[in-house]
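User: Let's play a game. I give you a shape written as tokens, and you guess the letters that built it. Ready? Here's round one.
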């Protein structure tokens, strides 16, 4: 640590916090206290931490900080969905979305500024990529949203579930995503159960195995196609990690906890992947995987060549899966009037991949 740079404690999970306090000659239980102050009570500064000695508070003020991203924009959709645009230290902005439902409140958090995967139907992919988020920038999304939403009349938190389904591919930022999730699960921080934290991946197989070993949370997999030929087109990562190997990894993921199932996400694209024959192909593919299926009506964005499947096509597709015994739900589109729906999160990415420039050159979009 240089003299000028303070350690931002928001980045530290409890183990890292313990190491930090050991490093400055303090007792390990301080790590628990500070974690609680920051994440459970939402303290802004060290002076608020009344169970620390005056000396320690002064010392921490000098060498450490609790710095959060700034809220650049706060939008509320007609259906109660709320989206925050958060500005990071380097000027990039990411998006975080709160989705209220009858019996739960879900926060959808981002893991990267932009995304490298370039799935053909996703708006984030079209923005290019700048960098991965730090653990603190991931967990701060929960902190900021909790602060903004407050608690319900019973004193319970409004946010009951977290999904890593925002911008980015969480498993390509494993080393920062895992400490962030550990804080979400930590009883001295957010105390969410593993069932209520869901990581969604396009299928980075080696990291799925690491996740199972190091931080098993609920898993969602963006499948979107019933065969490799089509999936290669929609999710280019499939060329590296094809479906058969992906499903093997899913089976391994569920093997340890017999009651768990993988949620397969399947975006419904008119005349691309929404046919009855494709539904049957999907049934066959998932026949021996502990699976649930989430059908996601495609959400449009500028410059896309895709269209959303009709309601009839989605219902027909769903019925084939249900008749075959697959638990299937059609995800409700939420917050689309503020571009907060699946695949619409764009943030403000200072693109370093030049993807946008290439796109502009090729098809003349602006
Ligand atoms: N990279 C991870 C996390 C992003 S999750 C993953 O791929 O799983 C975002 C979810 O929304 C994914 O299932 C993604 O495939 C889906 N999605 C992306 N673009 C979409 C769009 N335009 N309409 C509907 N769903 C979309």
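Assistant: Ready! My guess for every position:
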């Amino acid at each position: 640590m240089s003299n000028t740079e303070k350690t931002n404690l928001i980045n530290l999970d409890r183990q890292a916090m313990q190491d930090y306090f050991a490093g400055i000659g303090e007792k390990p239980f301080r790590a628990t206290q500070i974690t609680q102050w920051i994440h459970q009570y939402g303290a802004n500064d060290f002076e608020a931490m009344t169970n620390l000695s005056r000396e320690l508070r002064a010392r921490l003020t000098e060498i450490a900080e609790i710095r959060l991203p700034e809220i650049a924009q706060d939008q509320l959709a007609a259906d109660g969905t709320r989206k925050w645009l958060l500005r990071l230290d380097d000027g990039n902005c990411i998006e975080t979305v709160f989705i209220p439902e009858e019996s739960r409140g879900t926060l959808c958090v981002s893991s990267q500024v932009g995304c490298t995967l370039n799935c053909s139907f996703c708006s984030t992919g079209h923005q290019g990529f700048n960098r991965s988020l730090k653990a603190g920038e991931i967990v701060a999304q929960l902190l900021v949203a909790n602060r903004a939403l407050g608690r319900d009349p019973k004193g319970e938190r409004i946010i009951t579930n977290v999904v890593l389904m925002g911008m980015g591919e969480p498993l390509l930022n494993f080393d920062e995503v895992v400490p962030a999730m550990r804080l979400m699960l930590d009883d001295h921080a957010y105390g969410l159960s593993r069932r209520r934290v869901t990581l969604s991946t396009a299928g980075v197989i080696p990291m799925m195995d690491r996740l199972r070993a190091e931080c098993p949370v609920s898993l969602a997999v963006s499948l979107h196609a019933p065969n490799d030929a089509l999936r290669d087109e929609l999710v280019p990562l499939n060329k590296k990690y094809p479906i058969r190997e992906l499903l093997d990894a899913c089976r391994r993921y569920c093997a340890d906890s017999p009651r768990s199932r993988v949620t397969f996400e399947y975006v419904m694209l008119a005349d691309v992947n929404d046919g009855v024959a494709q539904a049957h192909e999907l049934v066959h593919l998932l026949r021996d995987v502990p699976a649930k299926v989430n059908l996601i009506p495609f959400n449009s964005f500028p410059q896309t060549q895709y269209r959303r499947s009709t309601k009839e096509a989605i219902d027909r597709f769903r019925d084939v899966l249900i008749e075959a015994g697959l638990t299937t739900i059609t995800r409700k589109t939420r917050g689309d009037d503020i571009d907060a729906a699946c695949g619409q999160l764009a943030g403000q990415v200072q693109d370093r991949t030049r993807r946008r420039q290439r796109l502009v050159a090729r098809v003349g979009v602006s």
